[in-house]
User: Which sequence fits this backbone?
């Protein structure tokens, strides 16, 4: 059973001669425990694809199934619930709340959704990501790599079935970038999540199970 | 609440400034309300002390005690649980070099207008008076002999009472005979001439059938005192204006803060934190800021009040201040509505820079 499925999804922006077909008709599916890379030049439609898959952008046409729920028919409130429970976003720049300590970034998620991780799971998460010592620090006191690790912790915290990362390593040097990919791979395998990483850094694709290439709004599976 | 509180803790300086502005507005509101009630009691405290439901005046006096005059026999036509006759006259009192505006009340000492004595004794004979203790501030003392602008009669202060000012002038209480001597001199007739009759009754409409007498409820009577309504309207208008201003100030401050945080809110929304949670957080934050500002403003007002010279007519009415404080918090929250609308409209996609 596919965790994430896109059926004949299209997205165009604007109308008339300004119309841009950011995503041409796309079929896609991803299974549990898969780490998938989407590469391609800037402006090719990678972010459009990812945000549609994450329920942040509605497609011009087509269906998006997350664990068999068609999210194309949901309203904003229901979508926000799906995002909270099923999807972990990791973004290019820091997506941390500047006035919350690392510990409270995670606690915020407890406040919003009713069920939380138990103490053991939380400690394990801190340990896996190596951020235990940072829990009392504010984002402004963290390095870029540390911030990205906290962002990953935040994305993993709700035990989502899908992790969507848009250029998560863009602000990091190579060593840190590899570290982050290593982490994503471990978590994907351990927690059996479905992880999609958008990047234009082809050196990172070695970590991934499948690689898709996006060119002018067309998504193509690369043969290994 | 979690977000609201943690943000305040992290950005203490920023939020202290906002609280400071709210505190100053609250301070001004409380102070004006103190001034309003102080000025009001300057006019009305003697009347409040009667604890009367209404006052009977002549129809043609147009609700003015000073303009009303009728024979005291009319009391027999008045139907009320309790009555107290009152003759009233404005005068300038002088003792030595000290001068003051006074309001002379001619009364029967066995009726309810008779005040409690706080110093000295009751008036018992001709030309003795009990004075409102506000006169002490003008340099008048127990035992002083007072000469009046309008008559040769001399009065002697035999006692003092508190909270006795009428239309901004301290009251001199005396008996009806002395009052008549002062007011009419040799022309005083055999029947006492009085200005009004204060009544305590449950049935104001049934007090009198006389065509030339009018029954005026106490509150209406006070409102028609010269200058009273204009004064309280002015001050109340300023207070209401401040409510509106504080709402706008809060709206602007919060809006600026919210605009700065648009991308942060967008990220949170992308992560699935609902708009409603973020909106409630802004409201909670506003409530915290406003409540702290109001409480500090209240404390500051009371502190200032304790150090003010007694000549400044402030009177702090705690229930009124609590209501105004609540109103301030409510209008501040109204000011937050703008920011809430902004948050609801934020597109999480923009934040992600998709
Ligand atoms: N909100 C938008 N309005 C109009 N055009 C857009 C919008 N978002 C993306 N596009 C266009 O769609 C195409 C794909 O963009 P994007 O998915 O961001 O590419 P990538 O992430 O691969 O760099 C680009 O040509 C971009 O200009
Ligand atoms: Mg992009």
Assistant:
């Amino acid at each position: 059973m596919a965790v994430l499925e896109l059926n004949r999804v299209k997205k165009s922006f604007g109308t008339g001669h300004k119309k841009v077909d950011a995503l041409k008709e796309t079929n896609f599916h991803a299974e549990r425990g898969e780490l998938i890379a989407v590469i391609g030049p800037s402006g090719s439609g990678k972010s459009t694809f990812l945000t549609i898959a994450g329920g942040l952008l509605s497609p011009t046409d087509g269906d998006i199934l997350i664990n068999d729920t068609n999210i194309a028919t949901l309203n904003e409130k229901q979508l926000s619930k799906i995002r909270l429970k099923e999807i972990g976003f990791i973004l290019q720049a820091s997506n941390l709340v500047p006035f919350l300590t690392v510990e409270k970034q995670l606690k915020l998620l407890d406040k919003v959704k009713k069920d939380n991780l138990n103490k053991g799971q939380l400690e394990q998460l801190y340990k896996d990501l190596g951020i235990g010592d940072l829990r009392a620090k504010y984002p402004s006191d963290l390095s870029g790599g540390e911030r990205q690790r906290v962002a990953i912790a935040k994305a993993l915290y709700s035990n989502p079935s899908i992790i969507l990362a848009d250029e998560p390593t863009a602000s990091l040097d190579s060593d840190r970038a590899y570290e982050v990919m290593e982490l994503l791979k471990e978590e994907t395998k351990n927690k059996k999540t479905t992880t999609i990483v958008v990047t234009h850094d082809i050196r990172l694709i070695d970590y991934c199970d499948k690689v898709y290439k996006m060119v002018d709004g067309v998504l193509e599976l690369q043969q290994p | 609440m979690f977000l609201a509180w943690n943000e305040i803790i992290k950005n203490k300086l920023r939020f202290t400034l906002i609280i400071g502005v709210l505190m100053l507005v609250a301070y001004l509101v409380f102070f004006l309300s103190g001034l309003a009630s102080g000025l009001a009691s300057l006019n009305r405290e003697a009347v409040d002390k009667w604890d009367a439901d209404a006052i009977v005046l002549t129809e043609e006096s147009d609700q003015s005690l000073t303009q009303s005059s009728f024979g005291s026999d009319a009391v027999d036509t008045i139907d009320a649980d309790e009555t107290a006759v009152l003759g009233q006259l404005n005068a300038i009192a002088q003792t030595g070099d000290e001068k003051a505006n006074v309001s002379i009340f001619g009364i029967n000492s066995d009726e309810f207008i008779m005040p409690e004595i706080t110093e000295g004794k009751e008036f018992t004979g001709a030309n003795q008076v009990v004075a409102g203790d506000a006169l002490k501030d003008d340099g008048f003392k127990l035992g002083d002999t007072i000469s009046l602008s309008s008559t040769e009669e001399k009065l002697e202060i035999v006692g003092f009472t508190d909270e006795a000012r009428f239309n901004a002038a301290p009251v001199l209480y005396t008996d009806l005979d002395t009052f008549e001597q002062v007011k009419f001199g040799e022309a005083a007739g055999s029947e006492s001439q009085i200005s009004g009759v204060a009544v305590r009754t449950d049935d104001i409409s049934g007090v009198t059938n006389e065509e030339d007498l009018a029954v005026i409820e106490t509150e209406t009577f006070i409102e028609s005192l010269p200058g009273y309504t204009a004064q309280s309207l002015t001050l109340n208008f300023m207070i209401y204006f401040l409510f509106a201003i504080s709402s706008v100030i809060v709206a602007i401050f919060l809006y600026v803060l919210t605009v700065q945080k648009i991308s942060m809110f967008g990220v949170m929304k992308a992560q699935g934190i609902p708009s409603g949670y973020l909106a409630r957080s802004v409201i909670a934050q506003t409530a915290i800021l406003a409540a702290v500002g109001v409480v500090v403003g209240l404390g500051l007002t009371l502190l200032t009040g304790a150090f003010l010279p007694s000549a400044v007519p402030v009177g702090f009415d705690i229930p009124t201040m609590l209501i105004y404080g609540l109103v301030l918090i409510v209008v501040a929250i109204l000011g937050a509505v703008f920011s809430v609308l902004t948050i609801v409209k934020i597109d999480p996609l923009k934040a992600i820079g998709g």
User: Anything to note?
Assistant: The two ends of chain A are 23 Å apart (CA to CA). The CA atoms of residues 103 and 209 of chain A lie 32 Å apart. The beta strands of chain A are 4-13, 20-30, 35-39, 61-66, 69-70, 87-90, 162-166, 194-198, 210-215, 218-221. DSSP finds six helices and ten strands in chain A.
